[in-house]
Design a protein that fits this description.
Structural class: alpha/beta
CATH topology: Rossmann fold
Order of helices and strands: HEEEHEEHEH
Organism: Geodia barretti
Distance between the termini: 24 Å
InterPro entries: GH (IPR017853), GH25_Enzymes (IPR051595), Glyco_hydro_25 (IPR002053)
CATH architecture: 3-Layer(aba) Sandwich
GO molecular function, one term: lysozyme activity
Largest sheet: 4 strands, mixed
Number of domains: 1
Number of strands: 6
Protein name: Probable GH family 25 lysozyme 2
CATH class: Alpha Beta
Shape: elongated
Helix content: 25-40%
Radius of gyration: 19 Å
Keywords: Signal
Length: about 120
């Protein structure tokens, strides 16, 4: 788990330094009938393991603007790291923090109960 976390941070940092904040999409240029149009982009992170406030601060300082955090696991239980990840992301200055879930359709709990069980 620690190696995965370190790998994810390394990839995030490499991407944030290698890719420009604005991407280009080729739609044609005058010489060859193709123009270049500037397209705005933003970076976000999808998490399913525990991240500290320092981890989120590092991501924020490297251009990441939003976090999507796993809130429910497919075996039918809330992710134990969800609440602390949400708080750490907000404390690090992430304005946009969302939660996703992997519902458990074979569990005896209804979808509504599974969402309520997340408690967030």
């Amino acid at each position: 788990m620690v190696y995965f976390k370190l790998l994810l941070l390394a990839v995030c940092l490499a991407l944030s330094s290698a890719l420009p904040a604005q991407l280009f999409r080729k739609t044609g240029d005058r010489k060859n009938g193709i123009n270049s149009t500037r397209v705005s982009g933003t970076y976000g992170v999808d998490l399913s393991s525990k991240f500290s406030q320092n981890d989120f601060s590092c991501l924020k300082s490297n251009g990441f603007d939003y976090a999507i955090i796993r809130g429910y696991e497919s075996f039918g239980a809330p992710d134990p790291n969800a609440a602390v990840n949400i708080q750490n992301a907000r404390d690090a200055g992430f304005q946009y923090v969302d939660v996703y879930m992997f519902p458990c359709p074979q569990c005896s709990k209804s979808a509504t109960d599974q969402v309520k069980e997340m408690g967030i």
